[in-house]
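Today's session is about reading a structure prediction critically. Students often jump straight to the picture, but the first step is always the sequence itself: look for stretches that repeat, for charged clusters, for runs of hydrophobic residues. Only then move on to the predicted structure, which in these notes is written as discrete structure tokens rather than atom positions. Here is the chain we will use throughout the hour.
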Amino acid sequence: MSVMKGICRPAMTDVNFEQALAAANAPLANGDRNRQVGPGEPRFELYHFALSLCSQKVRACLDEKAACYVAHDINLQMPLLGNYDPAYVRLRLMGAPDRPLATQYTGRSSVETEGFDPAVVPTLADLNAQRVIVDSMAICRYVDRQIGTGPPLVPEPLAASVAEEIGIVDCTPHVALLYGAHPDGDFRPRRLRDNMPGVHDRKIDKISKARARVADDPRLAAAFDAKTSKEEAARNFVATDESMRQAVSETVAIVAALEYRLDSDRPFLCGDSYTMADLFWAVSLFRLEWLGASFCWTGGHRLNDTPRPLVEAYATRLFARPSFQSAIIHWPDMPRSEFVSHHYAARD
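Below is the predicted structure for this chain, in token form.
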């Protein structure tokens, strides 16, 4: 898969880590959406969104490692779209000073293949190192290396296998399935079917207003210009029947291939121990279930008639893991869909 070509941006200005962090945190005053997770002195500040797939990977990783951090839930919903706040974008840019900005769209969120998006979540600030880390895959690897609690999520003997699996998840077209409808029948939750039409135009309008506030800052202006180009490409992608058919069929094929890599004699994908590969797959499979696409493994659907029993059993084990329960399923403000209501039956 070829890397999307981005646009270059001017060099970083002289804003330092502490100044950028303070500016990004200034509007984040809601105590329910900005809170400490875990006991002790927080080492990290995480900028995330409850429903964000990539944010869920990072929250699950932080929980698995028992890390103490401050969680800033950046509301990505209309009309707020806090990820377009210039102060947040400036902080995020510090984590990828040399990466080209993404301007194209293939329905994926992988930084490796799509380029760097300066106005999304998650973003992690390491208060000890005074460093900003972006890209969920890089953040999870960083947390795993830095926090010694528990066994490593990427054990050295399994490093190559784990990397291959998280790469597969990273390149699955989850974003396309969230924003776009299959042309032969929209299987997504009703809330998406009702609210997604016109969303890219509304986002572009919000970006335009944010850009107007920073017109005299070439670095930020370039970031918002790139974001506009990406959203325009996304609008075209999800409106193209062939693109959406391909995104769904590719996802079905990815799950089918997972079935053949699983082994009924071992609980996890790469062996007997839970690794980052399992963490990424847990988030991926739950997102598909949330979207109404569990037919990828249950079968009996016009888009996939073949059941994948090993994937179904694997998903059940992963969803029951305590870190996944607390970081995703029962995370505060995690929106439910009609397809995952059974996960909440015991608490309701």
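Discussion point for the tutorial: The CA atoms of residues 186 and 193 lie 7 Å apart.
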